[in-house]
Write a structure and sequence with these properties.
Layout lengths: L6 H32 L3 H47 L1 H14 L4 H25 L9 H25 L5 H23 L4 H25 L2
Pfam families: VIT1
Subcellular location: Endomembrane system
Protein name: VIT family protein
């Protein structure tokens, strides 16, 4: 029977999806606006955007897969190290966990009682969580993260492609910039929520980065017009 993903695993897949969509919006917007600065030929702009979408989709999917696999390998190494530490000196590892709880403001008797109970239930998970900061029973799937990015990147790319292609020629660049700014506001907000960060700063940072990208690529394209 296939094991269901935990909430933490689902959040990480959602994070990969949001960041993939964000990168799709930003990357393809930079490409099409840059090409629009050099030419008004709609076909050339569309083809460059489609090429960027395809390249970005493959790059994001493979990058996410490799990144998560690397993280997973590091976590496996940490678990192996912790198994040896528990076998060599169980009491020292239990003391480490208790000290972590005491540093968080829990009284020493309560901290040691909680440590004893959790170590008796699952010493490895308890010590790995407190020493390395992750749950060894909740590995992120590199396949799920890669597939999420592979779907999200082209989905995000659709907005700037549609905007730059179907808006009237005299407003297509401006309309694309506005549409992209709105989309980046949304993805910036969602990313901040998932990362438990400041929402306003997350949105502002995302939009400013997108606007700067489009301004720079537009004027570089304009130089070759």
């Amino acid at each position: 029977m296939k094991k269901k993903m935990s909430l933490a695993q689902r959040v990480n897949v959602l994070r990969a999806s949001v960041m993939g969509a964000n990168d799709g919006i930003l990357s393809v917007a930079g490409i099409v606006v840059g090409v629009a600065g050099a030419t008004t030929n709609s076909f050339s702009i569309l083809i460059s955007g489609l090429a960027g979408m395809l390249a970005g989709t493959i790059s994001m999917a493979m990058g996410e897969y490799v990144s998560v696999n690397t993280q997973k390998d590091s976590q496996k190494m940490a678990i192996a190290t912790q198994k040896v530490a528990l076998a060599d000196d169980y009491e020292a590892q239990a003391d480490m966990v208790a000290q972590k709880y005491i540093e968080q403001g829990i009284s020493e008797p309560l901290a040691r009682q909680a440590t004893q109970e959790m170590m008796a239930e699952d010493a490895l998970s308890t010590t790995v969580r407190e020493r390395y900061g992750f749950n060894p029973n909740q590995f992120i799937s590199p396949y799920a993260a890669g597939i999420a990015s592979m779907i999200a990147f082209p989905t995000g790319s659709i907005l700037p492609l549609v905007s730059i292609t179907f808006f009237p020629p005299h407003i297509k660049v401006f309309a694309t910039v506005i549409a992209v700014a709105i989309a980046l506001t949304i993805t910036g907000y969602v990313a901040a929520v998932l990362g438990n960060a400041n929402r306003r700063q997350g949105m502002l940072r995302n939009v400013v980065a997108g606007l700067l990208t489009m301004i720079v690529t537009y004027f570089i394209g304009h130089l070759f017009a």
